[in-house]
């Protein structure tokens, strides 16, 4: 995997082969960040990376100037790799080893952008739970964005807050927006 843009543009990172991950492809990641560059100011965005795996998405946000990134994964090796890489590259990424569903239920901080890359084999119910919990609780700030990476067979468009779908090969990004409540 490589960092596409920012202070560490072109930097190649090699994760240990024994990690149970499916990193977002460079093509899909580059396309995602092209969209985000036109919608948000990344340096002022507080980011939560759920099911972070190798930290691929977190590194991209950090390289582009985000100064507050939390990466959550339940695998010790993934968190260890993220922490070591963040220290080496001097990235402001805090890795938390936790079951993501438990983390969401108990966590009290709020974020401007949440990226969730659930294991594809978890099924529709798990994807819907993450989306519902993020959209209805205080995890996602008002006017925040939730991006869920998922297989192309999964349709999440009926869920509250859905705004658009982007397809890249066998993977898709569904975007959800938490709008400010009408006064």
Give the name of the CATH architecture.
Answer: 3-Layer(aba) Sandwich
Average pLDDT confidence is: 93
Instruction: Provide the CATH topology.
Output: Rossmann fold
Strand order in the sheet with the most strands: 3-2-1-4-5-7-6
Query: How would you characterize the largest beta sheet?
Result: 7 strands, mixed
Helix content: 25-40%
Radius of gyration: 15 Å
**How many structural units, i.e. domains?**
1
Look at the structure and give the CATH class.
Alpha Beta
| Backbone structural class | alpha/beta
What is the overall number of helices? 5
Based on CA inertia axes, which overall geometry fits?
globular
Can you tell me about this structure?
The protein is of the alpha/beta class and 183 residues long. The chain has one domain (41-177): Vaccinia Virus protein VP39 (Rossmann fold). It has five helices and seven strands, in the order αβαβαβαβαβββ. Strands 3-2-1-4-5-7-6 form a seven-stranded mixed beta sheet, sandwiched between helices. The radius of gyration is 15 Å and the shape is globular. The termini are far apart.
Give the topology.
Elements (H helix, E strand, L loop, with lengths): L25 H12 L8 E5 L5 H8 L4 E6 L2 H14 L3 E5 L2 H7 L4 E6 L7 H13 L3 E12 L10 E7 L2 E7 L6
Parallel strand pairs: 1-2, 1-4, 2-3, 4-5
Antiparallel strand pairs: 5-7, 6-7
Task: Describe this structure in a few short sentences.
The chain is an alpha/beta fold and 183 residues long. It has helices at residues 26-37, 56-63, 76-89, 100-106, 124-136; strands at 46-50, 68-73, 93-97, 111-116, 140-151, 162-168, 171-177. Strands 3-2-1-4-5-7-6 form a seven-stranded mixed beta sheet, sandwiched between helices.
């Amino acid at each position: 995997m490589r960092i596409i843009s920012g202070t560490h543009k072109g930097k190649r990172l090699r994760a240990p082969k024994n990690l149970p991950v499916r990193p977002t492809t460079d093509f899909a990641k580059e396309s995602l960040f092209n969209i985000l560059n036109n919608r948000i100011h990344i340096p002022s965005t507080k980011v939560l990376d759920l099911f972070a795996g190798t930290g691929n998405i977190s590194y991209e946000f950090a390289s582009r100037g985000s100064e507050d990134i939390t990466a959550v994964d339940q695998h010790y090796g993934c968190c260890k790799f993220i922490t070591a890489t963040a220290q080496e590259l001097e990235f402001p990424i805090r890795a938390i080893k936790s079951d993501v569903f438990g983390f969401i239920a108990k966590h009290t901080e709020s974020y401007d952008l949440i990226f969730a890359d659930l294991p594809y084999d978890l099924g529709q119910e798990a994807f819907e739970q993450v989306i519902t919990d993020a959209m209805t609780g205080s995890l996602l700030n008002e006017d925040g964005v939730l991006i869920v990476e998922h297989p192309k067979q999964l349709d999440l468009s009926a869920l509250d807050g859905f705004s658009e779908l982007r397809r890249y090969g066998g993977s898709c990004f569904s975007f959800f927006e938490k709008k400010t409540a009408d006064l």
